[in-house]
TenA family transcriptional regulator (Streptomyces griseofuscus), 227 residues
Amino acid sequence: MRQELREICAPVLRKVLDHPFWTGLRNGTLPGAALARFVHQDTGYLLPAYARALARCAADAPDDAGTRLFGQSVVGTLDARDGLRAAYAALAPGLGLPAQDAAEESAAPTVAAHSAFFTSSAAASYHAGVGALLPMVWFNAEVSDHLRDHAVPGSRYLPWITAYHPGESYRFAVEAFSELADRLADHSTPAQRRLITDHFTLGIHHELAFADACATPVARPAERGAR
């Protein structure tokens, strides 16, 4: 299953890594307002919705291994949200970033759609939930590693890139989610496997749309066009 999912996500992951939001973080050109928007949308809306969808999958998991993985991930997700907020608050004055204001901005339409996707997928079925939730953990690992490894020396955002990286142990979470998807697919009908792949495919496009939503102050090159 994971090889099939890797082939599905490869072209979209490339677009995400090359997106002006992430390239602007790497080279230091991203407007501060865009990073503030990212933190607000991610911690205010997307991560809480993801945590609740994880909790639903933990309750629906057919075995203890799945319940444990999703349950632990609920705590990890909420801890990560709090850590991002704290890191931004600590770094904002030195980086010249705007302060966060929870009352300032509601969920962007694409972020609201992404959050609703997590909720509806987890409620639809366990297979749909697994497919929908896997892209975030997978893309987070790839994006944070790429930021760390390709940041331009002297970039103003180097302290944020360091704080944003979840640590080397996060790769164990990616592997655990991938192994769960493999096990689930091995004991699934063709229709259930399609639920996993179809929701995974939708999920990776939501990841790209999230970068678009957060990069609103950044003009996206025309050649990237429709996706």
